[in-house]
Design a protein that fits this description.
Blueprint lengths: L21 E2 L5 E2 L4 E2 L12 E2 L3 E2 L5 E2 L4 E5 L6 E4 L3 E2 L5 E2 L4 E5 L6 E4 L3 E2 L5 E2 L4 E5 L6 E4 L3 E2 L5 E2 L22 E2 L5 E2 L4 E5 L6 E4 L3 E2 L5 E2 L22 E2 L5 E2 L4 E4 L7 E4 L3 E2 L5 E2 L30 E2 L5 E2 L4 E2 L5 E2 L25 E2 L5 E2 L5 H26 L1
Length: 397
Amino acid sequence: MPDQNTTTCDRTGRCNNCHIGRYGDGCDMNCSTGCDAGCNRRTGRCTNNCIMGRYGNGCDNNCSIGCDAGCNRRTGRCTNCIMGRYGNGCDMNCSIGCDAGCDRGTGRCTNCILGRYGNGCGNNCSTGCDGGCDRDTGRCTNCIMGRYGNGCDMNCSKGCDSVCDRGTGRCTNCIMGQFGDGCDLNCSAGCDGGCDRSTGRCTNCRIGRYGYRCEMNCSTGCDGGCDRNDGKCTSCIEGTTGDRCDINCNNNCTICNQNNANSCTECIDGRWGPSCNKLCNTNCKQVEGTTVGKCDQMTGNCINGCVPGKIGSNCTTDCEAGRYGDNCDSKCGNCANKRPCDIITGGCGLVGCEDGFQGLVCKGKLHLHNFKENIICILYSFYLRLIISVYDYNTAS
């Protein structure tokens, strides 16, 4: 009876053909489950290809789990590897430092993740790198702030302002107060605003200093500093003169020309003239706390006014008759015999007051209720006038 797995057989019982998936004379053996489209009638070798993931004559071997898209039917070599695997069987893991897989044959990373280098990207870039390093040499792409060298493993000088040259370590700029290639030299303490990066020459000097590095002191007679190069004073303190203001002005000057001790620009109180050798008029009003007046240096005119009883720009004119005091502002009182009063005090002197008046300047009126006192004043005034009359008569004779 023919086998149900065959179509027909010969007189010996050998099947003429086998159904797909069977092999042997009697077609009584199953082809491997790994065969794709049957197997050889005699040997059982898969006829065409193996199903995906299998290899070998009977396609009964599993391709490596690292294969992508199957493996070679005969050798089992993976067609491709899944990401992260390499080798014939894709059974080796790429380095954890690889970015996007590695070479199928050597395991060399296609690219390294940021911060790694080497064939297997197993080496860490220097911590001084900024933006990773060269895949092969490990040379940093850039250095982080404050580092230099191939591996950015050397620190820039603390005198650098932020960065230094990648190759030499020379500071790009120095912080204020430092100079030199490494900015490790201090500018002079006399510098104002730092110094030249290469030479250390001060940009400017502090007030009171001069010289290349502002290491010398200006003269104590300078007022407001001195010339940066030669130390000549910009101006002098009061009473001194000369390039370094170390010469005294003449005794009558308070301020003199820097080039001439006798060319005064301000005189002491009581003096005037180009060299302050002239005396102010004694009628100038005295400066408080002194016995002399103050007058204009060029004209000699009194600056603070005149002593009482005098007027005019140089105080040489007496008050006009009937006036007295400061600026001759006061009017005389009632002196006897119409005599003028004293131009300084306003007093009537020996002539006394006109009848009916009293006081130092004879401006106070007498009142009848003081009759006794008034009579005494009148008699005294009459007595004084009589004496003066006699004196005038004797003098005239």
